[in-house]
Write a structure and sequence with these properties.
Function: Catalyzes the methylation of 5-carboxymethoxyuridine (cmo5U) to form 5-methoxycarbonylmethoxyuridine (mcmo5U) at position 34 in tRNAs.
Shape: globular
Keywords: Methyltransferase, S-adenosyl-L-methionine, Transferase, tRNA processing
Protein name: tRNA 5-carboxymethoxyuridine methyltransferase
Helix content: 40-55%
Family: Belongs to the class I-like SAM-binding methyltransferase superfamily. CmoM family.
Pfam families: Methyltransf_31
Strand order of the largest sheet: 3-2-1-4-5-7-6
Length: 264
Amino acid sequence: MKDRNFDDIAEKFSRNIYGTTKGQLRQAILWQDLDALLTRMGNEPLRVLDAGGGEGQTAIRMAQLGHHVTLCDVSKEMIARAQAAAEEKGVSGNMHFIQCAVQDVAQHLESPVDLILFHAVLEWVAEPVPVLQILWSVLRPGGALSLMFYNADGLLMHNMVAGNFDYVKVGMPKRKKRTLSPDFPRAPADVYGWLEQIGWQVTGKTGVRVFHDYLREKHQQHDCFDALLELETRYCRQEPYISLGRYIHVTALKPQIDERTNDE
């Protein structure tokens, strides 16, 4: 199985993800976590890797904050869009762009990074654990990972709320190839287990869109956005709402000393 390349639907991706309340809410909740994480990491400019960074919305904001950002993406079209946006925002001097798969990023980095952003990529990768191991290898000890993944449990709940009983019974197979529905929705327990097995210390879990997608009156997603964001913020970092998020954002630290080598 091949990992997904968005060259063929880059415009659709931009319009359907970032041009909607889904994308706006996702970015708002994500940046609540990222602002807190950056505060804990101190005031010095960080070396940031945005792995599979797409059009660069998050990477550009990081660069605007004064951090040095490397954005890699397998899609030539996404890289071009990110470069154009960085030029428009005046931050291209703080950014470096690499067209490559995440699996190949290590050979393009001169030194370990302080912070890795890995957002909405894991659900498109056929072999997730090797990718997470590569990210571990390019992160300095004491560095942080910001991982957001598409939640299989949230997908199941969304389909049940919609009454798609037969679809759930057969395992919710993906119906079309050229779609923005992820190839490999991830079970939260699996993701947490992979991270801990590799050596990361999970420091935070946040549900992203814990209410938004379940609203019966869809117009409220737009008409009541501010109230919705307030309630999402209030509940998204506690269970059971974390596990109901359409995405889950995980923050994790790489220990200063690799505990896996202590017994050697």
